[in-house]
Design goal:
The complex is a heterodimer of chains A (116) and B (154). Chain A is of the alpha/beta class and 116 residues long. In chain A, helix 1 runs parallel beside helix 2. The longest helix of chain A is centred in the first third of the chain and has 16 residues. The N and C termini of chain A lie far apart (42 Å). Chain B has 154 residues and is α+β, with helices and mostly antiparallel strands. Chain B has a single domain, classed as Heat Shock Protein 90 (2-Layer Sandwich), CATH 3.30.565. Chain B has four helices and five strands; from the N terminus they run βααββααββ. A five-stranded antiparallel beta sheet of chain B has the order 1-2-3-5-4, covered by helices on one side. In chain B, helix 1 runs antiparallel to helix 2. The interface between A and B is medium-sized, with 29 and 26 residues.
């Protein structure tokens, strides 16, 4: 069995950063969605997913991330990703996610984009 | 032309959640041994996960098993990794599969159905054979980009 995804949140002025640690499968994706929607309820409209602790994802987990992207579009919020492995970055591009969200190499660049 | 099998590993796994991790760990070990680069191994891992998940979720195999064959191909040195993920399930008609599109998926209640597109995007060559007796996904990736290949298969 794989360890479940660990998630931590850094609430900053204007942006909340979610740090993932582990496999983003269906359970991991659901956990991210739960926390993301709680942050929206708290009033955050800019979310950053830092995937530096995630080396593998699957398409079920990414499908749940697409639900979050849809939600962010609906509320006119911003969602960005940073610190993706080259393979996860390539997978996001294969799926076309890069058209609807922003992907940055580093957290600093992503945060700067979100709070602009 | 990679025409000989230098090393081959066969696995039989239960069709159960998280089995994809066990399968891809074995594939990674073989890919490392053949000298494939870390980035290419990661791509193999992701494709393997998707092939296994498709079988786990959709095969409806009566024996509840997943069959994985991992082969290192080459003439004298490793040149190509070939992974076959098979099940003895109900199969599917590929002509009826709709290629997923992110714009459509964003509007749809179903966000799923990306597995094959991801596999084809990450591997060099993909062949899918499916009948009412089961499905086989054959995926290959060359060693290109890896460090100097070591001899495998002794």
């Amino acid at each position: 069995m794989t360890d479940s995804l660990k998630l931590s949140v850094d609430r900053r002025d204007g942006v909340a950063v979610l740090y993932t640690d582990g496999y983003i499968n269906n359970q991991g994706g659901e956990e991210i969605a739960k926390v993301a929607y709680e942050l929206l309820d708290e009033g955050y409209r800019n979310l950053l997913l830092n995937l530096s602790g995630t080396k593998i994802v699957n398409s079920i987990g990414i499908s749940i991330l697409i639900e979050i992207i849809e939600k962010m579009i609906d509320i006119k919020g911003k969602l960005a990703f940073c610190n993706l492995t080259p393979t996860i970055d390539k997978t996001f591009h294969i799926m076309g996610l890069a058209q609807y969200t922003s992907i940055f190499p580093s957290e600093d660049e992503a945060a700067e984009h979100l709070v602009d | 032309m990679a025409d000989s099998i230098l090393k081959e590993v066969a696995l039989t796994l239960d069709l159960a959640p998280d089995m994809e991790i066990e399968a891809c760990e074995k594939a990674c070990a073989v890919a490392e041994l053949m000298g494939m680069s870390a980035d290419r191994i990661d791509e193999v891992k992701m494709a393997m996960i998707e092939a296994c998940i498709n079988a786990i979720e959709h095969s409806e195999a009566a024996d509840s098993k997943l069959y994985v064959d991992i082969a290192v191909l080459g003439t004298q040195e490793p040149q190509e990794l070939r992974i076959t993920v098979s099940d003895r399930g109900v199969g599917f008609d590929r002509k009826k599969l709709v290629k997923p599109d992110i714009e459509q998926k964003l509007k749809s209640s179903s966000k799923r159905g990306w597995g094959l597109q991801i596999i084809e995007g990450l591997m060099d060559k993909v062949t899918v054979a499916s009948t009412g007796a089961g499905t086989s996904v054959i995926m290959t990736k060359t060693i290109a980009g890896g460090r100097a290949a070591s001899r495998v298969g002794s």
